[in-house]
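Researcher: I'd like a candidate sequence for this fold, 239 residues long. If you have to choose between options at a position, lean toward the conservative one.
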């Protein structure tokens, strides 16, 4: 039976909110919306040109992946990992990513190495130019692409989610201009991957995570409320 004009499936309705979801997720991951930032439905609705009902659905999706917190009767805010959660996120990443390295080495081919080298060059440039959002994005992309070499899609999806939550930790507890990871650490990891040296590679990745944890400063100042209209000026979605 042919659907009447104007009728849409649930999937199609969700798709119509996907640009809003991705814009908010990106703003959180790239630390344009710091941990603890309030996310008023009315302000977001005006910024995106989407109904408050649509914004509410997007916020529910973000809460489901632990990027925001929904407060009964008080709206939503960007998640702000406490000290224990911050440590647990990076320790979990270390456990998973180090354990998967034998599979990464077993599947690694020259095109994989070339792809990682390309990411490293972009990351290096982002740091040199102090482009914080790009540095964060490329640092996460490096870890995701490294693990994706293994061909384990489930693990890669998990690492992707953990890198997103890691960005919240760095935003909340990182020192000024600690965007992403250290480029020289990533360079060393690619060199060891190219050599096929499992034990040194695993040790280097573990040290990498240990150094990130050691760099975190478990104190922070209050952040000013963001201007949603300005932040999402080019992301408007018609109702």
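Model: Candidate sequence:
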């Amino acid at each position: 039976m042919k659907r009447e004009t104007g009728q849409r499936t649930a999937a199609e309705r969700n798709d119509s909110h996907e640009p809003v979801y991705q814009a908010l997720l990106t703003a959180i991951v790239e630390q344009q919306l710091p941990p603890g930032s309030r996310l008023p439905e009315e302000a977001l609705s005006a910024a995106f040109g989407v109904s408050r009902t649509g914004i509410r659905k997007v916020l529910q999706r973000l809460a489901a992946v632990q990027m925001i917190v929904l407060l009964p009767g008080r709206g939503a805010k960007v998640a702000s990992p406490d000290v224990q959660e911050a440590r647990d996120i990076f320790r979990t990443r270390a456990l998973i990513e180090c354990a998967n390295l034998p599979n990464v080495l077993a599947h690694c081919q020259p095109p994989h190495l070339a792809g990682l080298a390309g990411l490293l060059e972009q990351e290096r440039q982002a740091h040199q130019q102090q482009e914080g959002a790009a540095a964060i994005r490329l640092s996460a992309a490096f870890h995701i692409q490294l693990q994706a070499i293994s061909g384990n899609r489930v693990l890669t999806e998990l690492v992707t989610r953990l890198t997103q939550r890691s960005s919240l930790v760095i935003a909340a507890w990182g020192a000024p201009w600690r965007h992403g990871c250290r480029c020289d650490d990533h360079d060393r990891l690619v060199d060891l991957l190219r050599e096929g040296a499992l034990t040194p590679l695993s040790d280097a990745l573990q040290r990498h995570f240990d150094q990130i944890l050691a760099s975190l400063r478990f104190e922070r100042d209050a952040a000013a409320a963001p201007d949603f209209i300005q932040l999402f000026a080019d992301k408007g979605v018609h109702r």
